[in-house]
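Q: Predict the bound structure with magnesium ion.
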Amino acid sequence: MAATASETDSRQLLRRLRDVLNEESAGQLRLDRITRLIAESTGSDVCSIYLFRDSETLELCATEGLNPEAVHKTRLRIGEGLVGRVARSGMPVNTADAPSEPGFRYMPETGEEVFSSFLGIPIQRLGETIGVLVVQSRQPRRCSEEAVYALEVVAMVLAEMAELGAFVGEGAALAPLHRKSVMFRTGIGQEGVAAGRVWLHEPRVVVTNPVADDPKAEMIRLQQAVEQLRITVDDMLSLADTGDKEQREVLETYRMFARSAGWLRRMEEDIARGLSAEAAVEKEQSLARARMAHAAPYLRERLHDLDDLSNRLLRILTGQGRDTGAEMPDDPVLVARNIGPGELLEYGRRLKGIVLEEGSVGSHAAIVARALAIPLLIHAERITTEALNGDPILLDGEQGIVHLRPEETVAAAFRDKIAMAAKAQERYAALRDQPAVDLSGQRIALHMNAGLMADLPSLKGSGAEGVGLFRTELQFLVRNTVPRRGELVALYRRVMDAADGRRVVFRTLDIGSDKVLPYMKPQDEPNPAMGWRAIRVGLEKKGIMRMQLQALIRAADGRPLAVMFPFIAQFDEFREAREHFLSVLEHERRLGHTMPEKVEIGAMVETPSMAFAPRQFFEMTDFISIGGNDLKQFFFAADRENERVRRRYDTLNVSFLSLVHRIVERCREAGTPLSFCGEDAGRPIEATCLAAIGVQSLSMRPASIGPVKHLIRRVNLKELRAVIESACGSGVQSVRPAVMDYLRAMS
Ligand code: PEP
Ligand code: MG
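A: Predicted complex:
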């Protein structure tokens, strides 16, 4: 096979392909003409195009040389046969003797048995394989590197044509990309439903002209863009914090890539073969992404740099990208691969919802989304590839489903769902000033969780009695440097001012585990959730804790102050933290600062060990708050971040309820007030059961107060307690079914 090797031949072929693209014809006709053109100009006996029918199946969509009857009939699973191997690995297969290659699969319907040599090239766009281009010949000959390269350029143009919808139409395999409706099953970062339009955090660059006529002009465009990119990177480097060695090293490597002669040379070669500057950048980016999937972790980081540089270069070349001047829709749903907490805060409450390809339940983005009460769905695989700015999108944060460009029937059902949710909200709003009192007259205190100033406006609207958990680490997480004491004083003062006399329980820094401060050296720990975190850091780095406690005392400025220490796992940790607080108080007094009118020092019980702590622990604490999220993960040894296991164990599991009950009893014996502040406090059924077994104070996200109050007011907690006790004694694993029966009978 003499596959097109010379640059002139290559340019000619690309031009002819472009002409096909510009013709007014149906998708299938285009595909047929393209295979003919490629076979002709490469001097091959066969040229075939396989495209993905769905994520697992490739379909022969056009061929010149194989049996035409096989078109749209021959299908392969990814990984199956040589074509499937190319698709799976994203790498070419080039062999003189196809039948003797491992994995070769004979497909009688195609009549390909007479062809010995085989060259398969992945058709990729932005690292995603959308099909495979194959040329075959009778002559047993391996293609030259040059020929492989030439066909890669052709495959690149095919990928761009597919992206532009060139193969859509009757008979063609590809449904219109970016036009059909797609459903994603996702993880849930923050519950809620939302409907809106896609707003891409990093908009996709659309290359409309993959083929260019004038290589010289394209070369100049590329060189100018690269020059501009290099200047930007140099600027970044000069602005960087020169004291931070690690950051500098990263940027230096980044600059090295931007200056890499090899990178530029490869793109120039692509242009010489007929690609436009943009298409050349994308081709290199695609190759880098394909390599990224197989690279060692260290190299992967470097390839990430290259990816980022390619994106910047594309934005310079096309003028598209983040600052395109495109108008954000009125109802934006942010779609991104991932996003940092700071960036999310910048978008703020304007967003109707957020969908991420990556992310995790405890990520900083999730924490901020929760604070802003915006539904967040995570692990929506490939959504940034599928979605375009302005696409209609629906988020079901109860089920973990995203509908992109939904069918009308789905959209209509969704409208009903949203209307019902809005009705329920109205009902809850009407309860705002009512207490959470059950039918037997027992009163449960409902508080809200907070962590950002942005949360505080919810305090009045939600009907919460106060803030039961203020996660102070959020302020540290959303910025790049350690906040100064003065800034903290100002912030805590604003929080207390906003609370307007209501109690706010400040939790000291809970960093480590999933909450890694951007400016702290990451600890290389095998299991960070059980590692150096929270009070363990606080007691070893007393400077930070002292600064925080001083800031709280000064911000209180004579008002009552409630502080609790997170992740206490043994009595001495609490004793030491408490003594430290008392010594800071004394020090502040001597400095002449006004003392708080009242000081409460509490502990969070987040490990099962504390349910078995000495009696004196319960006596010494002014109050206790159960951190149910951590307590549950450690009780069941099930990572709260791990989607596979985190839903496996029910909060209403008999063993877990019995642990909570033990803590309730121990607090009662010592006369210590107890509250519960994990996510379960905000789930109406779980919250009501906790109340029934004796937890008289619950702290939850503001949006949950209404639903929890609504249910508590409709039940008799004494009766519910009896239902739970009887279920616990019956040998069942979870009391949920019995509780549900009781609740159904009530309504
Ligand atoms: C908890 O563990 O339940 C808790 C409230 O703390 P966080 O979720 O911040 O770990
Ligand atoms: Mg916790």
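A: The first strand starts at residue 46 and ends at 52.
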